[in-house]
């Protein structure tokens, strides 16, 4: 697959989670353009479903959104870590739960026009409760929700978190197909 050729790159910001560059590129179609890119190592999203077919969601304050949101557990993939290992770690840290069965449900780019972040969505089943160990800056409440009302909420626009909407609808579509 053809790739863009980077003619020049300048780093504008380098932080703990991401960096920002401005790049002069020649794209495969021959167009030369300046592109600003947020570089991110990738994230995982976990759709943890219990034996009653309920999904585990978290409620936490999201500064960029300016409010509390219900969303699936998720987090960044650490350097040298596989996506599956990150998913297992994030579920355990944020919720205390572990799962015996894991399956990748989706893989997508969060916003490919300017962001390199990928999202690997995993289905986690056969759950066992444990003790959460969230990071110092995380205050997370958890609750199980039946899948069917979540699907209706996603379809009606009542869920506001993109990764949660994608995962819930993909899970529902897969259940209909299987």
TrEMBL record:
InterPro entries reported in the protein's UniProt record: Nudix_hydrolase, NUDIX_hydrolase-like_dom_sf, NUDIX_hydrolase_CS, NUDIX_hydrolase_dom
Family note: Belongs to the Nudix hydrolase family. NudK subfamily.
Example GO biological process: nucleoside phosphate metabolic process
GO molecular function: pyrophosphatase activity
Keyword tRNA processing included in the entry's annotation: no
Gene Ontology CC terms: cytosol
Any Pfam family matching the protein: NUDIX
Protein's UniProt name: GDP-mannose pyrophosphatase
UniProt keyword Magnesium, yes or no: no
Domain Nudix hydrolase residue range list: 38-172
Catalytic function, reaction form: GDP-alpha-D-mannose + H2O = alpha-D-mannose 1-phosphate + GMP + 2 H(+)
Alphabetical UniProt keywords: Hydrolase
